Amino acid sequence: MAEGILRDHTVYGLRDSRDGEIRYVGQTSTSLRKRLRCHLSEARLGADPKSQWIRSVLAEGGSVEIFPLVERAEKDVDEVNQIMLHEAAGRDLLNLTGGGSGLMNCRESTRLKIAEATVLRFSDPAEREKTSVSTKAGMAKQGVVEALSTAGKVRWSDPEERARQSARTKAVYSDPAMRAAQSARRAKMTDAQVIEARTMRKNGASLAELCKRFGLAIGPMSMLCNGKTFKHLPIP
């Protein structure tokens, strides 16, 4: 391994369980199971080709599988290489870019297509209802809802775990230094960054991509984009 190169990522593929055809290549520093849950969650409302494909697979009774392509991968470099290899092999990938940079540097035409698809899709009540039904059916088929529910019940049925959560919450709100740290994290976005994030969100960037770019958790990022925080700034 070259000095200074971190290999703490996994390059993975997404495929339809029914035919095994790879349709998307990505990279993650978390577990593949967690990354798949993120893809399924994003697909509920996403207008990008990958999200539409996931919804169609679930609606037709299939399931989406995730599997490793390169373990201990070099960030960005191995993802780009895998996308090039699979495209050269004739696979119809749904990636909007060649990898590495994500949607932040994708073509303007791609952003416009995503924005147009989002407006058209969610202006139709029947389409919104169909998306809701298919998503719930797909998640139920894969056991996602049941697994999350079971994990939550197990966690909160443990008195020690509840006590730990309670202690952490009390520590945050009783310690001035910790409250200040919380405020600092929320305030680390400048006004210019907030406007940039909201514009990117409007143009089709996912919350996960915005979190990765700006270093913010998904909850605060969602509130920021929806105007619940930084209320003094306009929403594009």
Proportion in helices = 55-70%
Identify low-pLDDT runs.
1-5
Number of helices: 11
Most strands sheet:
3 strands, antiparallel
Shape assignment? globular
SS elements, strand count: 3
Rg: 20 Å
Reported by name, the CATH topology of the largest domain is GIY-YIG endonuclease
How many distinct folded domains?
Answer: 2
Placed side by side, the strands forming the largest sheet appear as 2-1-3
Structure description:
The protein is mainly α. The protein folds into two domains: 139 residues, GIY-YIG endonuclease; 49 residues. It is 57% helix and 11% strand. It has eleven helices and three strands, in the order ββααβααααααααα. It has a three-stranded antiparallel beta sheet with strand order 2-1-3, sandwiched between helices. Helix 1 packs across helix 2 and helix 2 crosses helix 5. The termini are far apart. 23% of the residues are buried.
